[in-house]
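hiii so um. not sure if this is the right channel but i have a protein structure encoded as tokens and i wanna go backwards to a sequence. like what aa goes where. can anyone help
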């Protein structure tokens, strides 16, 4: 089932999400719905807060990203077929010199900005079978994971921009929160929620 994606301005996107356990109701169905929602919106990652749930769950499938012709062949190969579910994730280490890459977000449509992040991370998490994992990722995969991880920490990529950049996009962000934007996937806007 395709779920509506929560738009910029909804308080759930600013909450630090809580851990879940293996008894979380209909978790398999939720994960399946999240993948379907992400693919429908042509995303490469989706976090539970983006569908209105303040829980520490996000998923990534960078395969569509691997078709970007601007990327090196090495990056394309690394991204192709990379698919994971992250539950109760904690980034335990970030390494290297920060580098900029143009990011966007399904909750903030039509806004893209350069964001600085470290190139290498080590993350501990539970997979969809609640098996503990500890892995190190680098490059664009690390970046996609960091972006989704930020969502469960209540952080948006726009929070990482300079004061000037934030001022420049303020009007566009305001329009998104009011639903004054055209998107080709289901969204839920904070302004519309208040009217009910």
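sure thing!! here u go:
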């Amino acid at each position: 089932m395709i779920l509506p994606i929560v738009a910029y301005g909804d308080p759930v996107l600013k909450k630090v999400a809580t851990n879940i356990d293996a008894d979380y109701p209909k978790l398999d169905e939720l994960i399946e719905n999240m993948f379907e929602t992400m693919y429908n919106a042509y995303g490469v990652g989706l976090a539970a807060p983006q569908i209105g749930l303040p829980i520490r769950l996000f998923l990534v499938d960078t395969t569509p990203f691997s078709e970007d012709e601007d990327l090196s062949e090495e990056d394309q190969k690394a991204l192709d077929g990379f698919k994971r579910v992250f539950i109760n994730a904690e980034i335990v280490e970030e390494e290297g010199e920060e580098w900029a890459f143009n990011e966007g977000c399904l909750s903030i449509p039509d806004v893209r900005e350069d964001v600085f992040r470290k190139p290498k991370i080590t993350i501990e998490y539970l997979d969809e079978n609640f098996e503990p994992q500890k892995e190190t990722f680098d490059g664009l995969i690390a970046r996609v994971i960091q972006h989704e991880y930020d969502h469960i920490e209540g952080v948006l990529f726009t929070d990482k921009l300079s004061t000037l950049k934030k001022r420049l996009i303020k009007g566009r962000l305001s329009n998104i929160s009011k639903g004054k934007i055209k998107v080709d996937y289901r969204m839920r806007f904070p302004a519309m929620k208040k009217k009910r």
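oh and DSSP finds five helices and nine strands in the chain.
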